[in-house]
Design brief:
Elements: H1 18-28, E1 35-39, E2 52-53, E3 63-64, E4 68-71, E5 82-90, E6 105-108, E7 125-128, E8 133-135, E9 138-141, E10 151-152, E11 163-165, H2 173-181, E12 186-190, E13 194-200, E14 204-205, E15 216-217, H3 220-230, E16 234-241, H4 245-255, E17 261-265, H5 276-283, E18 284-287, E19 293-294, E20 300-306, E21 309-316, H6 320-339, E22 349-353, E23 357-358, E24 364-373, E25 379-383, H7 392-397, E26 400-404, E27 410-411, E28 416-421
Parallel strand pairs: 5-6, 13-16, 13-17, 14-15, 17-21, 19-24, 22-25
Antiparallel strand pairs: 1-12, 2-11, 3-10, 4-6, 4-7, 5-9, 8-9, 18-20, 20-21, 22-28, 23-27, 24-25, 24-26, 26-28
Helix pairs in contact: 1-6, 3-6, 4-5
Length: about 425
């Protein structure tokens, strides 16, 4: 179960800055999942629980990078064409049995194992076939090639004993290929984080139901489920918590024993119908991060008492745009850390603001924006519609978020700003 320290999230007074909150996650949150071994082909998106150490060299032998001719560089004339007799042929998977002598050329194909020499490491330079001429049994080589051209050295990608993938890495397709190249058919990974997901509110209805006056369809649980699955979580859809104090407490308590973490949206403010906060106080403790961000300040992190230990409960805002922004900026790094991942913070890149903006100091703001190319070719960020916390269409239209730091109060159109692409958060 969770290894969060007893007071690591306790925070009172003024709003906590986002960077402070993220640093606490990095410093004090430890993985809560167990381990398992899975086939390589089933490991995409999983998180490594052990380093991957190369069991063999990649490539395992020196080979040709092109179709062409292998020669000794010292056999080439420095300032004129060189004529060498063709002495053999090697294809990939069919290495030469005998060493190669000096003074000749060897026909080779991409991936072919380059032979050793009688008294040395063998031919060290490969010409591309289109740069050479074949006349009878001789090959004519141009001058000017660099020594070692088109030769791939044994172990140049990875050597035996190299750590090629580190514990905590969330695996991608290229990582699986690399693991296969160094000899792995299965990998040790963290077990997928088991997440229980609620929505809250009497006004919330499932998509496809009939709506009565005052009711809305549940978009938050759909979006959160999708984002959690993309992070490799096993998500159990727990439905909608009604605005009833006792029922909320009972439903949350019933799910504590079955999940690694519980997440909900809505019901975390201080209104008379917001019962999540009361439930968390009854079942454990609340470590409230009153984050200085917009959209999405209402956010609660609680630690609830279960038979197996403490279970984290994360209550996100109820407004659809706010729930997505707070998930990407706060819940995502928390979930990944709990799941065992050691990911860097999302990369940003500079773009030019296509709008002026005024904001409060000591608050990080995220503006949903689309990217367009300006007259000078530099990318320009423009607001993706209405920026209200309840406007989900602006998130759907946006390419990502313009991130405005706490110390900024006035943004002028044309100023450089940091842009966080949604694709980097997948």
């Amino acid at each position: 179960m969770t290894q969060l320290s007893e007071d690591c999230f306790a925070q009172g007074g003024e709003l906590m800055l986002l960077d402070e909150a993220l640093t606490l996650i990095e410093d004090r949150v430890q993985p809560i999942s167990g381990f398992e071994t899975v086939p390589l082909l089933s490991a995409n998106g999983r998180i490594l629980s052990q380093d991957v150490v190369a069991a063999n060299h990649v490539p395992p032998y020196s080979n040709s990078a092109v179709d062409g001719y292998a020669v000794y560089f010292d056999d080439l004339a420095p300032d004129q064409e060189t004529v060498l007799p063709l002495t053999g042929r090697i294809a990939a998977g069919a290495p030469m049995d005998l060493p190669m002598r000096r003074g000749g050329a060897l026909r080779v194909f991409t991936g072919a194992m380059l032979p050793v020499g009688l008294y040395d490491t063998g031919p060290d330079t490969v010409f591309m076939q289109e740069d050479c001429r074949l006349e009878g049994s001789n090959v004519i080589f141009p001058c000017g090639i660099k020594q070692g051209a088109n030769r791939r050295e044994r172990g140049e990608d990875a050597a035996v004993g190299d750590t090629v993938l580190s514990l905590g890495r969330r695996l991608r397709a290229a990582d699986l290929g690399l693991a296969a190249a160094v000899g792995y058919s299965e990998l040790d990974v963290f077990k997928s984080l088991h997440v229980g997901l609620f929505s809250t509110g009497d006004e919330i209805r499932e998509p496809g139901d009939d709506l009565a006056p005052g009711q809305i369809f549940d978009s938050n649980r759909v979006a959160l489920r999708s984002m959690l699955i993309s992070l490799g979580c096993r998500v159990n859809d727990l439905g909608i918590l009604k605005d009833d104090r006792d029922q909320t407490i009972q439903q949350i308590e019933a799910e504590l024993q079955h999940h690694d973490v519980l997440i909900s949206s809505g019901g975390v403010s201080v209104g008379e119908e917001d019962h999540v906060r009361t439930a968390l106080e009854m079942l454990g403790r609340i470590d409230v991060w009153r984050l200085a961000i917009k959209p999405g300040r209402p956010l609660v992190l609680g630690m609830l008492n279960a038979e197996r230990g403490l279970v984290p409960y994360l209550g996100l805002p109820g407004n659809p745009a706010a729930v997505i922004v707070t998930f990407l900026t706060f819940a995502r790094p928390l979930v990944l850390r709990l799941a065992g991942a050691k990911e860097p913070r999302p990369h940003t890149f500079p773009v030019r603001a296509g709008f002026p903006h005024r904001k409060k100091k000591r608050r990080r703001e995220f503006v949903r924006c689309v990217l367009d190319k300006g007259p000078d070719g530099f990318l320009v960020a423009n607001k993706a519609g209405n920026q209200g916390a309840g406007i989900l269409s602006a998130v759907s239209l946006a390419d990502g978020l313009v991130e405005l730091p706490e110390d900024m109060q006035y943004l002028k159109s044309g100023e450089l700003v940091d842009f966080v692409p949604f694709k980097g958060l997948e």
